[in-house]
Each structure stands twice: as structure tokens, then as C-alpha cells.
Amino acid sequence: MELGGFGGLGFSFVGTWLDELIVDSGIDPAGPTDGVIDCAGFYGNQCGTPNPKWRHTARINWTHPDGYGISARWRHFGSVDVDDLSADPDLVGPNTQPGHATLGAQNYFDLTFTARIGDHYAFRLGVNNILDRDPPTTGSQNCPPGPCNGNTWSQVYDAIGRYIFAGVTLDF
């Protein structure tokens, strides 16, 4: 959206609602259960990576006509429960320890400054996870080796913490 002589304002929002995530547990269907589990909203040894029912990324940015600007991003991941707590009989298990039943909702905020100088140079400087939020952790009994590392899920949550980045783009 143009703001006259004040530049332009932009907004984007991408949200995902996970209604169900059906997985075949491999349990013999001739038994008392069907072997099919719904991992939406769960994580752990059977469901693996945290699968929050809601997650989103929102961004707002402003760019001045002279070529400099600022952008703020909000990354949100909804809470998830350990799969042992599901009412599904294929997921029920005795592994949950107190304090590890839920990975709470996580919010990360990022800030980026940009500057376009001339026709050939674009500079950017930013900070991701500006509030230095730690990722949620769980006990090793709910953290299968491989996808879970350091008692957290680094492919979902920001395990690095706050970090600063810079970049230059040269257009020829």
C-alpha cells in the first residue's frame, strides 16, 4: 500500500491449521486397535516432530521512497502434547514424565533493516529471535535420536537463539 511521499507499507500473513495428521503406527489391525493414529497436536516417539494444530508467520514492512526500510516478522507455533497423552489407544504409553507433557506455544520476533543505494547495491542487517527465546525442551524418553537433538526439535523451533545477520546484494 502506497503512503504517498512516506513510502510503502506491506503486510503478509501465512497461517496453517492442521486438522488431522493420520499415520499408520504399524500395529497389527487384527488386534483391538486399527493401527491408525492422528498426530495433529502431538509429538514424541510415535508422532515424531511436533505437529501444532496452528502455526503462522506474519510480516509487516515499510519502505521509504529513498530506498531504506524496516521489516518485522512474528513466527508462532502452537502448543503440542506428548503423544502418550492421546486418547487414541494406539498412542497411549507409560513414558510421560511430569513437566514434559506439553511443549508450550512459542513466539519468535525478527527485525530487519534494508537500504538500497544506487541502482546496484542492496544492504540488509537484521536480528532473528530478537527476544532470545529458548526452544521448548522435553525429556529424552520423548525425544527419539535423530530428529530430536539436545532434547528439542531444532527443525521446528529456534534452537540457535538470537542471531544477527548482514548481507549485500549486487545487481549487474
Write down the overall mean pLDDT: 86
Spans where pLDDT lies below 50 across 5 or more residues: none
| Count of distinct strands | 11
**Distance between the terminal alpha carbons, to the nearest Å?**
28 Å
> What composes the largest sheet?
6 strands, antiparallel
Strand content: 35-45%
Report the radius of gyration as a whole number of Å. 21 Å
Question: What is the number of domains?
Answer: 1
Helix percentage range: under 10%
General shape: elongated
Count, helices? 0
Task: Give, in spatial order, the strands making up the sheet with the most strands.
Answer: 1-5-6-9-10-11
Helix/strand-derived category reads: mainly beta
Q: How do the SSEs run, as a string of H and E?
A: EEEEEEEEEEE
Task: Kindly describe this structure.
0% of the residues lie in helices and 41% in strands. It has one domain (4-170). The chain is an all-beta fold and 172 residues long.
Question: What's the short version?
Answer:
0% of the residues lie in helices and 41% in strands. It is mostly beta strands. The strands form 3 sheets. Strands 1-5-6-9-10-11 form a 6-stranded antiparallel beta sheet, with no helix packed on it. Strands 4-7-8 form a 3-stranded mixed beta sheet, with no helix packed on it. Strands 2-3 form a two-stranded antiparallel ribbon.
